[in-house]
Amino acid sequence: MKFQRIMFVLVMALLFFSARAYSQAGKSEKSPPSPSAPSVEVFLGRWDLTLAAPDREYPSWLELHEEGGKRKTASQS
Question: What is the pLDDT of residues 19-33, one digit of tens each?
Fold first, then answer.
């Protein structure tokens, strides 16, 4: 009975450390997305907006651009 407990603990520890090593290996292989990824670039630029309120519509704009690798926004309402 004691031998079975020791083997059980060893197998569980082996499984735990194997799963942890596997999950850490997956994280290190993935690189963070670059700031100029194509999925972000399609949204850069000026966007003209019309904000609808119960009484009337209000013209506005939103501008998305990058400076020094960081995304910036500007807006007018």
Answer: 777 666 655 555 565
71 versus 47: the higher-pLDDT residue is 47
DSSP 53-77: -SS-EEEEEEEEEEETTEEEEEEE-
Cα gap 31→24, rounded to integer Å: 13
Q: How are beta strands 70-76 and 45-52 bridged, if at all? A: unpaired
Assigned token pair, 48? 């003209």
Extract the tokens encoding 1.
């009975």
Q: Which helix (H) or strand (E) holds 19?
A: helix 2-29
Do 72 and 66 contact (CB within 8 A), yes or no? Answer: yes
Q: CB of 51 within 8 A of CB of 58? A: yes
Write down the pTM of the prediction. 0.42
